[in-house]
Amino acid sequence: MLNKVTKRKKPYSAQIEVTLNCNALCPFCSIPYLPSSLTSKEMSTAEIKYIIDELAILGVNALSFTGGEPTLRKDLPELIYHAGVEHDFINGIATNGYLMPKLFRENGKLNGLDYILLSLDYPNAKLQNKQRGLKIFDKVLKTIDYASTREIKVILSTVVMRDNLEFLDEICELAEKNQCSIELYPCEDIIRDFSGVQYKVENIDELIPSISKWANMIRILQRKYKNILTDPLSVQIIEQGGFGGFPNYNQKILRCHVAQSYLFIRNDGIVNFPCKIHPLLSINALKYPISEIYNISEVREIMQNHDDFEFCTNCRLGCAIASSMPATWKTLASKYIQGYLNGNLK
Question: What phi and psi values does residue 46 have, to the nearest 5 degrees?
């Protein structure tokens, strides 16, 4: 409401990339291609806590920890407590689930954790374990069990590829059986840019599904399952080409608001604008207060340009769409109000 009716702006949510290290080898992810000179850079516990404090000062409501694989950090429970209890953020983690059962056994309830975004791309152990390069399927199910006894929401996150389209019904059924919400976005060609050097997955096009087939499948599943968070407007936005395409634009439903609504802090403390994929402007949040960074004229200009940049054309990233949804009443209702009414966001 403040963002719409006043000049005072604040992001709806933020994400801290606590590490770039990962214990999995997912074929659609560019992290395994990164050199150790990048993955070895990590903020200390005190530095991440400082970032969390700064986000609270700015007025952010929701925070998630991601990576890489965030559970590789030994201090993750401490960070979760600082964000979720000491600052009362809506607080979550994005994880492959491999270390989550151990984390629950060693740390009990994980006070301050509201939700887990848990990766699951196949409905059985053979395919999931092969995909991730880990014996991980049973760990995912155990994570769901642990979370349910601790009243922590689990959202299954499925990367839809050509070879798992046929399994989406089974995955949704598994999610429903275990009382989990689920989001299903298509695999994307995500290029990680560090100081002008780009890292990407070779032959990623072999994994990306037909968008029309994906969209039709999601519409069929939406009629069958109420726990799907991938809402009809998001499907329409992706099907019509995603963001960008200035001046005619691919679709008229929603402009990208990521630079304004969603702050991404890298593993080394750098904040990227407009987004983590295309850093036009990068500023060290350990040197300058985030509330000042967010309000400088250069950042405001990037916000006002939305998805007018050339690199925005055909961007279909689910995180960009979801974080832009609160910017209009229509998309807010489609994504979040309807999701709440369906019981998926409670």
Answer: -65, -40
Residue 140 phi, psi dihedral angles, 5° rounding: -65, -45
Give the distance from CA 109 to its chain's centroid: 23
Q: How far from chain centre, in Å, is Cα 306?
A: 19
Q: What distance in Å separates the CA atoms of residue 96 and residue 318, rounded to the nearest whole number?
A: 17
Where in the chain are the domains?
9-341
Name residue 38's amino acid.
L
CA distances 304 to 75, 300, 316, Å, are: 37, 6, 20
How many CB atoms are closer than 10 A to CB 207? 19
- pLDDT tens, residue order, the chain (346 aa): 555 554 557 899 999 999 999 999 999 998 888 888 888 899 999 999 999 999 999 999 999 999 999 999 999 999 999 999 999 999 999 999 999 999 999 998 899 999 999 999 999 999 999 999 999 999 999 999 999 999 999 999 999 999 999 999 999 999 999 999 999 999 998 888 887 788 889 899 999 999 999 999 999 999 999 999 999 999 999 999 999 999 999 999 999 999 999 999 999 999 999 998 889 999 999 999 999 999 999 999 999 999 999 999 999 999 899 999 988 877 877 766 666 666 665 5
Beta bridge partners of 65: 16, 93
Q: Are 116 and 75 in contact (CB under 8 A)?
A: no
CB 324 within 8 A of CB 275: no
Contact by Cβ (8 Å): 254, 328 = yes
What's the CATH number of domain 9-341, 3.40.50.300, 3.40.50.280, 3.20.20.70, 3.20.20.20? 3.20.20.70
Q: How far apart are CA 34 and CA 21, in angstroms?
A: 9
